[in-house]
Each structure stands twice: as C-alpha cells, then as structure tokens.
Amino acid sequence: MFLIKDLKLKDYINQKGIRIKEIFCKNALTKSGISERSFSLNPYIGCEHSCIYCYATFIRKWREHKEEWGKIIEVKVNLCEQLKREIKKKRGIIYIGTIGDPYQPIELKYSLTRKAIEILKEYDFEFEILTKSHLILRDLKILKNYPKVSCEITLTTLNEKIRKLFEPKASSVKERMKTIEILIKNNISTTLFFGPILPYFSDKEEEIKKIFDFGKEVGIKEILCDSLNYFSQKLKIFLKNISFDRRAVNYYLKISKNYQEYVNNLKKRILEISKDYKIPIRVLF
Ligand code: SF4
After folding, report:
1. Which pLDDT value is given to residue 8?
2. Are 201 and 248 in contact (CB under 8 A)?
3. What is the pTM of this model?
C-alpha cells in the first residue's frame, strides 16, 4: 500500500524560475485568530503573485528563506491526509488562503486547494476562500450549491496598469471582475475585498466610487475596505515601483510623515461615500 510518508519530497526550480519545495505539514488547520472557532488552512507557503505590499512576507517562518518573496513556494504535499485526520475532531469556520493565495498558479499542478475543499464539503464544514485569482472558477462545480462556502475576491484598483505595479503576477482586473460576476451568478456568497486601498491610485473619491459601483452592479453581498498596512516598512519598494510618477512619489512621501492621520481621513471619506450606497460596506481599519 502507498503511504504518504514514503513520498520522496522534491525541491526543484520550475520553468518560471521559482523554487518549489515540497514539505510535510504537522497541521493542516491552525487557529486563525479571527474567533475561537475558526481555523486557517494554507496549502502553500509563499505566493507567486508577488504583491509588493504583501503582509505575509512578515511571517516568522518566511525569514528562514534567502529567496525573495514570490521566488520560493512551499507545498504541503500531505495536507489532505492531515486534514482528514484533524477534521474529525474540530468544528468551526475555516479560512483558506490567509498567508498565501490558495489559487496561485502552482495550484494547477498540485490541486491541493481543490482536494481540501472537497474534503471540507464531504465533512459539511463551513469555509471561506480568500483569493485574487480567477483560477477559483476551475472549482465552480464543487463550490456551486454548497451553502456553507463563501468567497472573498480582492480588487485593489480597476486600473490594469496600476494593478501590474502592485500585484505583478496576480490575475488581471478584468479576470477578477469576471470571476466575481460568475461566482454571484452561480449563487455563491461573494464578498469584494477592496484592500489594500492604494494611496494616490485608488483612494480618490472617483476611484472608490468606481469599485462601489461595480459591486452594486453585480449584486455583491458585501464590500470590505482595508487600508495599506506596514506602509513605512514597505515604503522603499513602493517608491521604487511608482518612481515614474513624480506626483505619486511626493504623495507617498507626504503621507509617510503622518500615516495614521492619512488612514483616519481615508476612513472618514469612505464612510461618507458609502452613505450613497444601499449595499453593505464595511471598513476594517
Ligand atoms: S496574493 Fe496575497 S499572499 Fe499572494 S503575494 Fe499577494 S497579498 Fe501576498
């Protein structure tokens, strides 16, 4: 009989130049911190999407790696076997993709996310998928007609050029908008995660309204708004990526002097704008 422990772990560089390191995980589910009854599930550690604002780069485990973010992905090859073992003893909501996108391109090869959601369905678990990838549509059939799933799709801007600057290898704006529409059309509970709101590029009234209008038009369940965290720690890389636009650079330098004040003003502005919309809009900061 084939046992997962007999599997030889591979460590290789794929065609895109990304190091893929297969690992055995001790736990499939970890306490999520959102509530006592919720858990996180992350099939992959590291993320090819390479968003320049990514907070996951601060996780302790990550500092062990020499490769830059997006250049190494750990794959939990025993995730599903481990999940089956743990799930019998646990109850609660499971958040999939809290420290790495569960539908990043490597999922096409390993299908760990797909297998995990099939198991969660089989055991009648409630789960929420956080992603900015249109690959989630591959699993539409599994998600459809399952009342205990919800999806949270990220949109940080509707401008494709700006998207490429901040989320270079994630799905395009069009793909994500289409994904949201298709999920909703298939009666899958879908939230639009508008975050992080990008200073200068998506924090102006007209840009915020464009996102809210889109949500309203497609019949979104809820819009969650979040600000850009770790601003000062990431400022250097932001400045490098937006250096082509002098006004944007000056804006970033200006708000960096009192970032909390900027965030407070942004919150006020969003709350004011959201009054004109009859859809649930929540500010998370
Ligand atoms: S998709 Fe999420 S986890 Fe992946 S790089 Fe972007 S912010 Fe980080």
Report:
1. 87
2. yes
3. 0.95
